[in-house]
Amino acid sequence: MFVATDDADVHIVKTGTETYEKIKKHVYVIGQDVDILVLLTALIPDYIDILMLKE
Known about the structure:
Structural class: mainly alpha
Shape: globular
Mean pLDDT: 88
Order of helices and strands: HH
Distance between the termini: 28 Å
C-alpha cells in the first residue's frame, strides 16, 4: 500500500511500468485525470505499447 502525500500521478505511472517489467503481462491504469495520460506518454519506454480508451 502507498499513501501519497502529494499528487500520486507519477507514482501511479511508475508503479504500472514496474509491474509490467516484473510480470510481462498487460497492466491496466484506469483514471479520469488528464495528468495520468500525459505522464503515460512521457514516462513509458518506447518498447511498451500503450492503448488508451475514452469512455
